[in-house]
Design goal:
mainly alpha
């Protein structure tokens, strides 16, 4: 099975706990990076480029940090290793919302 990330994403979202053992923001981002590396289809670079013009974080930030800039001020990004379960849930939710929006945008181009 070699589905692109946009094709696989609905399944990941529906069965998050099956694919990501620790359903943390950090674990989810690591899974997405690994999935991308394994598939050889590097769409997260485009996701980063799509996030930058939103203006909520500095362009040199890695995409997981740009996603967090949607929740936290750029200068006050927390350390994801110490997220509470509520912070993890919020960050994963925002990540999934942004990825959905990004994949729709990709289809419309």
């Amino acid at each position: 099975m070699n589905m692109s990330l946009p094709e696989f994403f609905p399944q990941l979202k529906r069965h998050h706990g099956v694919y990501v053992m620790r359903q943390t923001y950090e674990g989810t981002c690591a899974f997405l990076d690994g999935y991308e590396q394994g598939s050889g289809q590097f769409i997260l670079k485009d996701f980063h480029s799509w996030l930058v013009p939103r203006g909520k974080g500095r362009p040199e930030l890695y995409w997981p940090h740009l996603v967090l800039c949607e929740i936290y001020a750029d200068g006050a990004l927390p350390d994801i290793r110490y997220f509470t379960s509520e912070e993890d849930a919020e960050a994963v939710s925002v990540l999934f919302e942004l990825l959905e929006e990004f994949f729709v945008w990709c289809k419309s181009r």
